[in-house]
Amino acid sequence: MTARRQGDAQRPVSLQKRRLKITELVSRRPIHTQADLERALLEAGIAVTQATISRDIQALGLRKQASADGRERYVLPKRRDGTLPHATRQIQRLTVEVAVSLNLVVLTCLPASADVVAEAVEQLAPAGLIGTFAHGRRVLVVARDVASAAEIGEQLRTHSR
Hints:
161 residues, 43% helix, two-stranded antiparallel sheet, alpha+beta, 6 helices, Arc Repressor Mutant, subunit A, single chain, 2 domains
């Protein structure tokens, strides 16, 4: 959920929708600073705190890259060949469902792919991750606390099918 500023009439937006909007904004126009991103989100009706923007930038893997005018701008994580990072591709390709319960996240995967997905989650190293356990079609992701599990679950939902 997003934070509201006093006097603003913005509607709450889920983490997944907010991050989708961020990727759309970064793809379509130059975003040079976190303040630029905050203004762009506000224009889209989404009010967030600087701390939330910082977490979203980290979770999405946004990087700064010099633009044509020499200023740095945020860009989506892509490899030189234009593909998404391997871990993200593995999660997208192999994860069928993401469920959160207390400080745990359970991923249901395609048959015989749990080990690959668990390794991909470890490579993403989301904040609050303690570890993963894979067996059969399930990956158990253990988070530091309930809030971390919710964040990890939302992040993995954005990366899953």
